[in-house]
Design goal:
Length: 133
């Protein structure tokens, strides 16, 4: 899916080790990348940025697609909510991703302006395992 005129830029900072369930976080990252591919279908840029933050790490997934309307942004993490045509999406990807991040003690949110793309931001603590303080 990334070969169809989509450029992926990587801007990785020097990160400390994060105690987490990597398989679960990989599921979140893959979901965000696939959604970004859908947003820039036919060509565009996806930027993945990582940085050290105050109490942990921050990951940002930005696409330069059409953006997400404000009325939709408030619902995108709801189970079964999708903007994709029937048969193209279940509406579970962002809901499951939200749950995984929260169980890791983190936070995920989106910022978007129509015509300016969308940025999904994930903040994770250094000990991002469920049940950690």
């Amino acid at each position: 899916r990334l070969k169809s005129g989509i450029d992926v830029k990587r801007d990785y900072g020097d990160l400390p080790r994060v105690r987490c369930y990597p398989g679960q976080l990989n599921q979140v990252f893959l979901n965000l990348l696939m959604n970004a591919c859908d947003a820039v279908e036919g060509g565009g840029t996806i930027t993945v940025r990582t940085r050290r933050s105050g109490q942990g790490v921050r990951l940002e997934f930005h696409d330069d697609g059409p953006g997400i309307p404000a009325d939709v942004q408030s619902r995108i993490f709801d189970p079964f909510f999708t903007t994709k045509p029937v048969g193209k999406g279940t509406g579970l990807g962002l809901s499951l991703s939200h749950g995984i991040i929260e169980r890791h003690g983190g936070r995920i949110h989106v910022t978007s302006e129509p015509g300016q793309g969308a940025t999904f931001v994930i903040d994770l603590p250094l000990d991002a395992t469920p049940g950690s303080p």
